[in-house]
Each structure stands twice: as C-alpha cells, then as structure tokens.
Amino acid sequence: MTTPAFTPRVFSGIQPSGGLTLGNYLGAIKRFVQMQDEAYETIYCMVDLHAITVWQDPADLARNTRELAAGFIASGISPEKSILINQSQVPEHAQLGWIFSCVARMGWMQRMTQFKDKAGKNTQNVSLGLFGYPALMAADILIYHATHVPVGEDQKQHLELTRDIATKFNHDYGVDFFPLTEPVIEGAATRVMSLRDGSKKMSKSDPSDASRINMTDDADTIAKKIRKAKTDPDALPSEAAGLADRPEARNLINIYAALAEQTVDEVLADVGGQQFGSFKPQLAELAVEKLSPISTEMARLMADPGEIDRILSDGAEQARAIAAPILARTYEIVGMVR
Ligand code: AMP
Ligand code: TRP
Question: What kind of fold does domain 9-190+304-334 have according to CATH?
Fold first, then answer.
C-alpha cells in the first residue's frame, strides 16, 4: 500500500531509441494523457540515459529525443499540465541510481526477463548499464517519490523491483522514506503484439518495419501494414472467448478496441462473423483517423526544435525543484557528509 502521506504523483518514461510505435501510444502515452486530468502531478520523461545501454548514434539519439518530445506533445501531453523532461538534464536520476545500485542485489537483477531478452546469448558482451538498468529505472521513479507509474505489461517486473528497492532501502536505513509505487497497467492494449508474429511484442527495435506501426507512418503505409498483417483463415468470433487461441486475431481486435475506446465485446458485437478481408480496411481507416492528426502535429513541432528544447529545459528546472531535496535527504539518510 502506498503511504497516504505521499503526494499523488505520476512518473513514466519512454526510451528515445527509435521512433514511437502504436504499442507505445496505446500501452503508455494514451494513459499518460488521461492522467494529466486526474488528481495527480504528472512527470513524463525521455529516458536518454537508458537508451545508451545499447549503442545509439549520437545524432540519432538527439533527433529521437526531440521527436519523442514532439510525440508526447502531439498526443496531448501539455507542458502546462505536466512536467516534460529528458532524463540527462536532471542529474539527480543518475545520482540516486548509483545509491540504488548499492541497494539492489545481483540475484534480483539476474531474474529480469527484459535483460535476458535483450542480452540473449550475448550476456558477456552487453554493457554493464544494460544489466543495472532497473536500478536507474527505480531511481527515475523514486527521485520524485512518485506513487503511480503507467506502463505497458512488459514493465511490470521492473516495477516490482522498484518496490523491492524501496522496501530494502527503508528497512536497511530504518526510515519510511520511499513510497511503494503502484503500477498502472490498464486498457485494451497493455501488450500490443507484432503484426508479423502474434507471440512477439510490437517493438521499435524489431528489425522488420512491417511488424509495427510507427507514429510517423503515413496513411498508405499504415493501410499496407495492416493489410499484410498476419492472420488466420477463420472469420471473426462474436465474443472475446473466441479469440483465446488466435493471437493475431486477438491483437488486431485489441488494437481496434483501444483506438475506438470500446471493449473487445463491443467491437466483436459489430464485426463478429466478418472475414479479415473486410475487417482490415475498417481497422486501417480507424488507425489513420486517430494517428494522422498526431503525426501531422509531430512534423509541425519538429520544424521548430528550439521550442522543444525550451520546453525540456523548463521541465528540467521544475523537475529539479522536486528531485534535489529528495536526493539531499537520501544522502543525509545514507550518511554522506554535506
Ligand atoms: P519503450 O519503448 O520500451 O521505452 O517503452 C515505453 C512504454 O511503452 C512502456 O510503458 C512500455 O511498457 C510501453 N510499450 C512498449 N511497447 C509496447 C507494446 N507493444 N504494447 C504495449 N505497451 C508497450
Ligand atoms: N524501462 C522502460 C521501458 O523500457 C522505460 C523507463 C525507464 C521507465 N524509466 C522508467 C518507465 C520509469 C516507467 C518509469 O519501457
């Protein structure tokens, strides 16, 4: 349980390691936008320090960071309602990250499935940062005493680790200083799957561009990717239970439901019995209708990078006003002479 003494505060982050995908939008950003209007302070972050746990070309990293900021704003995150930052401009993240590297245990980190997936057979050759990544992620959240973190399903294990780190810190130092953060994993599309393989998550790092819808894809590209999406030969069922063993069909229906803000059963009440040949064009039309205003606005914002940089620099100033006293108190608890 979150201790009620903590201000209700939301933090979440996305890596600027490539373009935004429909998975990021439906799994994370859509919820970020809604939470701005609920009873929380909201802080949203481009996690550039996390991105370099795998190689990033410097010019691409800078461009992707600004493009991600444009994506946030174009999707409805308002710099008036939320603090929008890139991680490296708030050095307190990395400073608390070090302390948490000394709290987290090797055995905890070795259980992280995202590390195992990303490292694959290459465990001796990946960066030390990739292994330690979840300690920095815990610091991103706890440097603000954030109480709620909206994310997609794949981040659940990292949020459990964040709670473990807070618990161990509080216990070891005999304090009640860090809150136990609640994950917010909600909506019809907390796990959007690849369009080419219904058992794999849609990801910006998938080598196949056809596997994902990018927020910057134009209408023709979106329609073509949906037309070519892997499916099965059967007609659509009329109820959600009929999707149980049909991962590709389930994925396309989930995407439709999330975009239309309907439940899966509501969608199936309309399209049940149809073949994919008639459903896919409807999905493509809906996706274009929802995504094209965002990509148009992103392009407009990207034409003025100076304005984006100003927003991020303002955000960093506001963020540091929250983070600096929490870091100072942490150092004091740990026994660092100030
Ligand atoms: P990343 O792009 O890995 O930095 O992820 C940023 C946010 O988007 C996290 O909250 C993820 O859980 C979410 N996310 C990424 N890919 C997907 C997906 N395929 N389905 C749902 N959520 C996703
Ligand atoms: N690890 C997250 C991802 O790969 C990104 C992230 C970094 C994050 N720090 C965070 C998400 C803090 C939520 C809160 O998607």
Answer: Rossmann fold (3.40.50)
Cα separations in angstroms, 51 against 57, 129, 175, 317? 11, 10, 32, 22
**Ligand 2 neighbourhood includes 141 CB (under 6 angstroms):** yes
Sheet (strand 41-46) strand order: 82-86, 41-46, 9-14, 148-150, 182-184
How far apart are the C-alpha atoms of 38 and 43, rounded to whole Å?
13
Distances 260 to 74, 220, 266, 283 between C-alpha atoms, Å: 18, 20, 10, 10
pLDDT given for residue 188 in this prediction:
77
- Distance from Cα 203 to the centre of ligand 2, integer Å: 14
Confidence of residue 5 (pLDDT cuts 50, 70, 90): confident
The full set of domain ranges for the chain reads 9-190+304-334, 209-300
Ligand nearest to the CA of 87: 2
Q: What is the mean pLDDT of residues 62-77?
A: 97
Considering 81, 156, 200, 204, which one is annotated as catalytic?
Answer: 204
Checking if the pLDDT of 2 tops 70, the result is no
Domain 209-300 of CATH type 1.10.240.10: yes
